[in-house]
Design a protein that fits this description.
Number of strands: 8
Strand order of the largest sheet: 5-4-1-6-7-8
CATH superfamily of the largest domain: HAD superfamily/HAD-like
Largest sheet: 6 strands, parallel
Number of helices: 9
Order of helices and strands: EEHHHHEHEHEHEHEEH
Helix content: 40-55%
CATH topology of the largest domain: Rossmann fold
Number of domains: 2
CATH architecture of the largest domain: 3-Layer(aba) Sandwich
Length: about 220
């Protein structure tokens, strides 16, 4: 039995279509070209402020627009759940992990309000003993503070972090926690170039990984 903390976007959920749609409303209001889905995916992972910075840079907009565009995105973001899907096997995996006695948490760079909104949308809000978003603390991943705070909130002890990206790998490394890399998310770096303890491409595999980790 152990503590298992998950990233959210690109790990448990494929939220890129909703993020793309919300971001395109912001870009459309600035009179510039919208993003396609691959471009939007490439901007995800470091939190909403960085997402906006990348959108501004990609469209050559004035950086002074950041606060206005970010506020608009955040207004849209909380209800941006209807194009989001769970990755295959997530529900059964979470059931199996809970049945095995593991304590589950979320540590994501997605702001806390939309994080909780999408968890409610999938009726998963009661599965996680602690939820840390990108604005829960003054710092975001890859700073290890949110992950370590989530770990403490779940009672500490042996732990595993599960994520999909370069940011997640760096966060786990900085926090000195074992890292399980989900390969179907939003990473841009080859798997063998990312530090990880375990690797998997379907959530059917995660209960066995957890059993090995906490043996």
């Amino acid at each position: 039995m152990g503590v298992i903390i998950f990233d959210l976007d690109g790990t448990l959920i494929d939220s890129a279509p909703d993020i793309c749609a919300a971001g395109n409303i912001v870009l459309r209001d600035q009179g510039v070209a919208e993003m396609d889905l691959p471009e939007a995916r490439s901007f995800i992972g470091s939190g909403a402020p960085i997402l906006i910075e990348r959108m501004i840079a990609a469209r050559g907009l004035d950086p002074a627009l950041k606060d206005t565009m970010l506020a608009q995105l955040l207004d849209l973001y909380e209800d941006a759940v209807h194009l989001t899907t769970l990755y295959p096997g997530v529900t059964d995996c979470l059931d199996a992990l809970a049945d095995a006695g593991h304590i589950l948490g979320i540590c994501t760079n997605k702001p806390e309000a939309p994080t909780k909104s999408v968890l409610r949308h999938f009726d998963m809000q009661d599965r996680f003993g602690a939820v840390f978003g990108g604005d829960t603390l003054p710092v975001r991943k890859p700073d290890p503070a949110p992950l370590l705070a989530c770990h403490r909130a779940l009672g500490g002890g042996p732990a595993l972090y599960v994520g999909d990206s370069e940011v997640d790998a760096a966060t786990a490394q900085a926090a000195a926690l074992p890292f399980a890399l989900f390969t179907r998310g939003y990473r841009k770096t080859p798997v063998d170039e990312l530090p990880h303890t375990y690797v998997f491409d379907h959530f059917d595999a995660l209960p066995d990984i957890a059993a090995r980790c906490f043996a």
